[in-house]
Amino acid sequence: MSAQTGLWLGGLVTLMAWSYLYKENPFFRVAEHIYVGGAMAYGVFNTYYQVILPTWQKDMVKDGNWSYLIPIVIGLLIYTRYGGRGWNWLARWTMAFWVGYGAGYELAYSPAVFMKQVTDTFRPIKGINDVLYFLIVAASLFYFLFTVKKEGPLPKGVAMFGRLSMMVAFGAAFGSITMAYLSLIIGRLQYLLKDVVHLVK
Amino acid sequence: MDSWNKMQRIDPRLIYLLILLAMVIPMFKPMGLPVAVSPETKTVFEAIDSLPSNAVIFISHDTGPGNAPELDPMIAALARQAFKKNIKLVVMSLWEMGAQFADDQIKPIAAAMGKTYGVDYVNLGYKIGGSMTIRTMVNDLSKGAAGVDMDNKPLDSFPLMQRVKSLKDVDLLFVTTVGSPGYSDWMTYAAEPLKKKLTGGASLTMYSGLQQYIRSGQLTGYLGGMRGAAEYERLVGAPGKGLAGMDSQSLGHILVILLIILGNIGYFRSLRATGPAGGK
To answer: Could you tell me if B233 and B256 are in contact, meaning their C-beta atoms sit under 8 angstroms apart?
Structure first.
């Protein structure tokens, strides 16, 4: 398949996917299935040829590192859940190993990142930004202090300030997401108009 | 029903059409709206500019096809800046298609600038495993990459990989990110333990969520979406798809703001006419 045919095919599938904006239709369904199937096949192919096969060939067969068989067996135990009542409990071993190792791993490395965030909150107040930062952090934390009743003008005011600050943050995040989605439309339009039909330079 | 009430019931397809027009028109008639460079983008540019010749940047292009339009232009601009300074690139992705996207960006630029694969850059391809792969690469890059590049060629056959044996041997980490695995894995398992500088770019869907890491210095600046890519292209002096999309982006924003204002005016006017509970 030539490069230009590939580009036309990509353009056609894009238009089929966008047809959903008009209404649900079979072209959209076909595009959706092509995408899911293609992405899955691409992932399986690359995982096999770029990771599993070379690891098997080099680390296990060539270097004789057969200890890899232990995690392979633990991983394969997940499929015993299809083996009926006598066997399906073995699938829990895979999950237990995964969760235990994952949690321990995360707890070993995460504090270094997290603590830096905590210590960075305590900054010398040098300008208006630092004053705002301090007030917003304190008020937002106070908003989530559920053991204290927010009665009286001061606690109510502080909690309200915290809530408004968070709403500003959510608004900024939402604006940022809108900008991202517009960027994605632009990317596809550049592909269609520039790469596929060459109407735009 | 007055015209303001009708504004509450606009057919969404009309809005899609208006947005499409706002995006397409500037592509045919560029307006050249100004693009100011943010301090975060300047920090990214300077972090790369301060590297010596022959330094190594490790790129992880952790994206899928959905967000490639935002992040691909960053890789292209980075390749231009790096190759201009004779900086070497080692590329990979923790997402299935990211490595191919990075290759599509870097290969033509390398060819145009006379750079050789294996000497000036290597693409390790897609590597599954997320944080486990990163931790393995901290001590043994070849082992983490299963010993091969994206075309299944042995890594020890490339001159560049003779001097890059682990992540300890790289000078800067450049990670593009749209989710997990992404910048947070690279920060937790590589940048923090090795005390390496981590920079890159993120989709705007998550850019606001990583501001605190830029502020704390855990991220050395960061590019925010297509806008960040456009700013970076401007600093590198190589206009690409990022800058080309900025007029469309600006017009799209103006349209969205107008629609929000119109929608709100319509809402409050209809409220005044019918009362808070719709007149009931």
So the answer is: no
